[in-house]
Amino acid sequence: MDALAGLLDGPRARGAFLLRMVMEPPWSVRIEDRAPLCLMSVTAGEAWIVPAGSTEPVLLRPGDLAVARGPEPYTVADQPETEPQARIGPGGTCTTLRGEPLAQSMNLGVRTWGNAPDGSTAVLVGTYLLDGEISGRLLDALPPLIVLPSGGRAGALPALLDDEIARDEPGQSVVLDRLLDLLLIDALRTWFSRPGAEAPAWYRAMGDPVVGQALRLLQNEPAHPWTVAALAGRTGVSRAGLARRFTELVGEPPMAYLTGWRLAVAADLLRETDATVEAVARQVGYSQAFAFSTAFKRVRGVSPQEYRKGGSLP
Question: Which residue has the higher pLDDT, 270 or 133?
Answer without folding.
Answer: 270
